[in-house]
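can u do me a favor
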């Protein structure tokens, strides 16, 4: 896995750079050069994501579905232990809704290896499925035109806050491009090293693909400091998808905790 990550181009690792802040603090007189700031952030993010692949951690997954009134109609919570293993990861299911899993359930989820699959696709920076629900959605955040909002602070760390706004729609463009253009958001990059500390995004208009349609999508990303790097702490996606004449609204929340060297 480590050699796989190192072989990726830097641009492919800019998967977390965006999200919306509502309210624009004035930029200081010494506003940084955005191209330089983003180049630094992309290089730093590459190093942080490479570091992620060398740690063991706990992954908590909460999957929710909503009814037509916006109320939660179902919820299931999984807890995994994820460890580096060979060129990938070993993903051991610890509990389902707080209850110990059966041996069959543990083996089933180990074979699925959802985290590794999503991690690899996300690193490829290819938005293959704009209607997806996990890390592979992150590439839609980096192809934006950012503007500087000013200095901020996240978890006691000074950071630069940037934002981006929706762009005009291009109806005959690929779905992924249309979704990028429909997005607004913001991100915070640490003053020290350009780490991505926080990012948010939301779509502002529906995007259709045949019988599928994305009515609304929101993302949130948060990182936490680990031995000089900033590794993912939270990734949350809420989507409202049109399916023919029906629709499905769901939210998936992924929490990463307990980082340590295996």
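np, heres the sequence
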């Amino acid at each position: 896995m480590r050699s796989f990550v190192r072989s990726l181009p830097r641009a492919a690792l800019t998967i977390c750079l965006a999200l919306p802040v509502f309210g624009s603090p004035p930029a200081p007189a010494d506003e940084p050069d955005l191209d330089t700031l983003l180049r630094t952030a992309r290089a730093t993010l590459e190093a942080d994501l490479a570091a992620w692949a060398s740690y063991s951690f706990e992954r908590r997954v909460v999957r929710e579905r909503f009814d037509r009134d916006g109320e939660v109609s179902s919820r299931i919570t999984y807890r995994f232990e994820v460890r580096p293993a060979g060129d990938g990861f070993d993903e051991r299911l610890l509990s389902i809704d707080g209850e110990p899993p059966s041996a069959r359930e543990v083996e089933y989820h180990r074979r699925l290896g959802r985290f590794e699959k999503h991690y690899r696709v996300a690193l490829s920076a290819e938005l293959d499925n704009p209607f997806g629900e996990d890390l592979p959605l992150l590439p839609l955040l980096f192809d934006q035109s950012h503007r500087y909002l000013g200095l901020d602070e996240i978890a006691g760390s000074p950071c630069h806050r940037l934002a981006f706004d929706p762009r005009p729609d291009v109806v005959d463009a690929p779905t992924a491009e249309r979704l990028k253009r429909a997005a607004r958001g913001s991100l915070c990059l640490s003053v020290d090293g350009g780490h991505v500390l926080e990012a948010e995004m939301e779509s502002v208009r529906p995007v259709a693909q045949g019988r599928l349609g994305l009515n609304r999508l929101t993302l949130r990303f948060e990182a936490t400091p680990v031995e000089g790097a900033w590794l993912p702490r939270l990734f949350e996606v809420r989507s409202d998808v049109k399916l023919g004449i029906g629709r499905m609204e769901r939210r998936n929340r992924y929490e990463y905790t307990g980082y340590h060297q295996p």
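The chain has one domain: 2-260. hope that helps!!
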